[in-house]
From TrEMBL:
PANTHER family assigned: EAMA DOMAIN-CONTAINING PROTEIN (PTHR42920:SF5), OS03G0707200 PROTEIN-RELATED (PTHR42920)
UniProt superkingdom: Bacteria
Domain EamA: 6-139, 149-282
Keyword line: Cell membrane, Membrane, Transmembrane, Transmembrane helix
Gene Ontology CC annotation, any one: plasma membrane
Stored InterPro entries: Diverse_Substrate_Transporter (IPR051258), EamA_dom (IPR000620), EmrE-like (IPR037185)
Its membrane topology: Multi-pass membrane protein
Transcription in keyword set: no
Compartments, as annotated in UniProt: Cell membrane
Protein name: Drug/metabolite transporter (DMT)-like permease
Amino acid sequence: MTQTRANLLLLFAGLIWGLGFVAQSTAMDNIGPLTFIGLRFIVATAAVLPFALREKARATKPLSTSDYKAFAILGTMLFSGMVLQQTGLLTTSVTNAGFLTGLYVVLVPLLGVLLFSHWPHPVVWVSAVFSLTGIFLLSGGSLDGFRQGDWLMIAGAFFWALQGLFIARYALRIGRPITMACIQFSVVAIAGLIAAMIFEQIEWSAVQAAAPEILFTGIFSSGVAFTLQAIGTRYTSAPQAAIFLSSEALFAALFGAIILGERLPTIGLAGCALIFLSMMMVEIVPRLRFRKSAHTKTASAEHIN
């Protein structure tokens, strides 16, 4: 798969997350965040399992114990990010939630340098700042007073960034992205349901009321989008993946206009433009530099001949 196709997959994942953000928020009108997470990822596991089994049948070698441990670690990171984000939505505004979750765009390259001494292409830093600024403008260009939920969102962004980094490393080394996604989902489902039974009261009538949100986010926002993330990240860098996935905010605004009749102010349109520009920069600028370098080498070779 080419890097361009991988980035398009990540863009499509951002589209799905943007569409599912409302469902994720409204589900808690009926059930608690831990119950929602557990049930959502049971659906996600069931949706992806047949494809994971087919991937296993086609694999040339079995997974090792260390591979399963790596997938379980990713599941723990995903669970941590989901719990912090979902719980944070109870005590913060959607405006703050959208902006603060977008902090992972900057955290991914920063943690990549701190943990692995991996310095990305310079354009990634500029694009990350552009994307984060775009998310801020798309959120209205202002933040309400910080509350507990805001700090939970910041902590969640940290785990999203860690997950993005380690997905990139494991997906490239192991080469079983669908299996990786399926095991992640099962870890989150089990942890979510155990935590829900301890800290929340699960009522069947409430689950039925939230069934549309559970099914949509389980099949599409989790099953499809997170699997696309696992596949696409295998063929691109973690910082580029984070920037393309930040299109979630862009698509959330688009679907808000189409479905709910909402209209963006000028500052929101400027935010959309910045997010789109950041994605184009990380896709085009490195290629221009590579072509320039290749052209210089070719010219030098012709001069020597």
